[in-house]
Amino acid sequence: MGWSVSFLRVNTSTSDDKDSLYANGIMQVPVIVSIKAIDENRDPYTLSDSDLNSIELIDYNDTGKRLSDGWSYTETVNTTYSNSLPARAALQFTQVSLKQEADGSPQIKKYMVSTTKVESKKIGARIKLSDGTWVNTHSSDYDSYVTLEGKTPVKYTLDNVKVEYEETANGTYKFEWQSAWDLSWGTNNDNKWHQRNYYVSSQVHKFVNATRHGYDSTGNASGHPSDSRLAGLYAYCAPDNKNLKLSFIWDYGGGTTTKTAGLYKEGTIVDWGVDCKRRAHAYPDIKVNQKSNAVCLTRLAIDCPDEIWGSKWSNDNCGFQVWDEYGNTGKFAAGFSDDHDAVTIKSDS
What we know:
By secondary structure, the chain is mainly beta.
């Protein structure tokens, strides 16, 4: 059966049919198309899902093609990021049901729109009828549009993030040593460890996502001792050959997490001309990610009286990328001070 349009309108989720979004290609805002149809007898006609899916968003001033040129839309909602800026959220109203009501209220098609263009855009809608002709919202019968404003994205650098640290925890670990006198074993628990956590957070909009790269994901990278408790490591060095400094970068989010970080290391030293073995159980339980909406890194210092740690190692490409609640992003490099006693953060454009 043939059908035709009796009502066609496009709206935003705000009361003034205007909305704004960051032009980062990630943030989305909803555009809602309302439609009523009638059959050949002018009775209400319920459009099929296929009919509704044929609705397209268009440039209001160029109705011959679907929305493009830096603007795109999809039915899929990206739930990681907000779809309303604070200034516009106050104007939001309750959206109509996506189902057609018994009283003949419009059927609804909702799209999520994103852009990479810093500009104002008037957006309409169109649908192809059963006879192959198009009906759009820039006509004498149906005239409506929404205005979306693409805003300049925020780019995160050291100028608009906060880097802070805290002296998080300290303690001692088990150290076994062999006597040069008779090669008997002794144990002490006096060797110290110290943890300092670093946090990178936004001074503009809160971070909701981050990825890391350039680190040892398993603890078994070539160049340093193999131990799964070194997972997350990006630098391993004992600057004075005795006191070990470890730099870690942690997976984003998840709240406060306990990690067993460090390693078990055996070594041999020469004491009074005698080869004596050493065993360091240097893997304390530490807490990370205590601050929400922040990237967490750790410097773990492990004191030792002997030279047992081996060669230094680092991944100089370590870094992370952050996204705020609206999809704005920034890239950063993670490093360490010359003495490996501090984590360093730099913008990485």
